[in-house]
Design brief:
Layout (H helix, E strand, L loop, with lengths): L1 H7 L6 H9 L3 E6 L2 E6 L2 E2 L7 H10 L3 H15 L11 H5 L7 E4 L2 H14 L6 H17 L12 E4 L5 H18 L1
Parallel strand pairs: 4-5
Antiparallel strand pairs: 1-2, 2-3
């Protein structure tokens, strides 16, 4: 939403304009060469939404009640069939509070900054680690202190600290949690 608002010239706090924009959106997810892509209104925005600026813009628009309501409804509709894995800063507390398994990933801002910088470089973008870390910390603060659906772990979430893990180790840890949950269900 933040990306689309900026591209459309909307203020990130324009509740009416953002609500009108949401009513026109179509979201799809597609696997392309083994990677999940986000497609909005027929356009692949995957690379555009994974930048520090896009993350902060998403955080800013998420403070608007009308935006949150519409996006929560959209996410719930996506998950109605079950068997869904979804990530987001309020998925376990607001969107799917009754989910079978909730996992809350954590890592230090420095580690997350290094990971984000690596993603940026893979896309040919430059960045400075200190700036990326500062942006991550600012977004964390903004999301955890917002009035509507603040960032926090659900009481029944399994917290996994990924600071010292690579992507293969994180995947293995998450799959082990899923398998354990499935065996107990």
């Amino acid at each position: 939403m933040g990306l689309l608002a900026v591209e459309s010239g909307l203020a990130l706090d324009d509740a009416q304009g953002l609500a009108a924009m949401i009513s026109q959106l179509s979201f799809e997810f597609a696997w392309v060469e083994g990677e999940l892509h986000t497609v909005v209104n027929g356009r692949d925005v995957s690379g555009l939404i994974r930048t520090p600026t896009a993350a902060m813009n998403a955080s800013t628009v998420s403070k608007v009640g009308e935006v949150r309501e519409a996006l929560v409804a959209l996410q719930r509709a996506m998950g109605q069939r079950g068997g869904v894995v979804m990530e987001g800063r309020d998925i376990g507390t607001v969107v799917f509070p009754d989910a079978d398994l909730k996992i809350f990933l954590v890592a230090s801002a420095e580690v997350r900054g290094l990971r984000r910088l690596e993603q940026m470089r893979e896309r040919g973008q430059d960045g400075v680690l200190a700036d990326v870390v500062a942006e991550i910390q600012a977004r964390d603060h903004q999301d955890s202190t917002r009035a509507i659906a603040p960032l926090r772990a659900a009481d029944d979430a399994v917290q996994v600290d990924t600071s010292a893990l690579d992507v293969v180790e994180v995947r293995a840890e998450l799959l082990a949690l899923v398998r354990d949950k499935m065996q107990r269900s």
